[in-house]
Q: What sequence folds into this?
């Protein structure tokens, strides 16, 4: 009985991941954007509500560089959140 709950949970998680739109971004563009944001955020008292997204994207970028990948696949929502944080940090 317990295994059917776990299977259902796994299916729901898989469905959620499939429903989330994935996009491909050039590694160099992601690197440039993240480096600019890091410079702007470093030492400032900027809104840090998007730090977890920033950290996940930074890790993806680093992994892509280490693996020599020209592009990075990521959920479009992450990039949207990063763009929102970028716009917000430029206003302050």
A:
């Amino acid at each position: 009985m317990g295994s059917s709950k776990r299977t259902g949970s796994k299916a729901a998680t898989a469905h959620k991941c499939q429903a989330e739109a994935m996009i491909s971004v050039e590694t160099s563009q992601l690197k440039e954007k993240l480096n600019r944001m890091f410079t702007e955020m470093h030492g400032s008292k900027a809104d840090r509500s998007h730090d977890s997204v920033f950290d996940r994207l930074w890790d993806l970028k680093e992994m892509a560089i280490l693996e020599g990948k020209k592009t990075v696949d990521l959920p479009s929502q992450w990039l949207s959140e990063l763009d929102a944080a970028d716009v917000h940090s430029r206003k302050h």
The chain has four helices and two strands. Residues 26-40+49-92 form one domain.
